[in-house]
User: Which sequence fits this backbone?
């Protein structure tokens, strides 16, 4: 991100006749590069208490699966806390991604 941090604002219209309830300014967050994805993954690993034998491989897999998307990085790291994805100090990132995609597909259908 640039040095300026984008700010999302919401405001009510002063004139109630125009029917506009809220005015939003859109903010686009671009994908992160591998270094920034690694830093965000490290943050989530610390926050969620994720332990893995091969931390660098885990970060590379998260970058590969998320393509630098911060929302997907957060979702994958959140899933990594679950014991069903952990085995012998390793985290099954492919299974996590599959479950995440299935969950999103089911959520989109509702």
Assistant:
């Amino acid at each position: 991100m640039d040095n300026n941090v984008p700010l999302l604002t919401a405001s009510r219209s002063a004139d109630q006749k125009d029917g506009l309830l809220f005015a939003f300014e859109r903010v686009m967050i671009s994908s992160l590069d591998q270094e920034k994805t690694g830093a965000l993954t490290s943050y989530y690993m610390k926050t969620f208490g994720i332990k893995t034998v091969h931390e660098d491989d885990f970060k590379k897999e998260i970058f590969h699966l998320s393509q630098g998307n911060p929302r997907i990085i957060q979702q994958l790291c959140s899933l990594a806390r679950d014991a069903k994805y952990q085995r012998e100090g390793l985290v099954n990132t492919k299974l996590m991604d599959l479950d995440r995609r299935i969950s999103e597909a089911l959520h989109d259908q509702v």
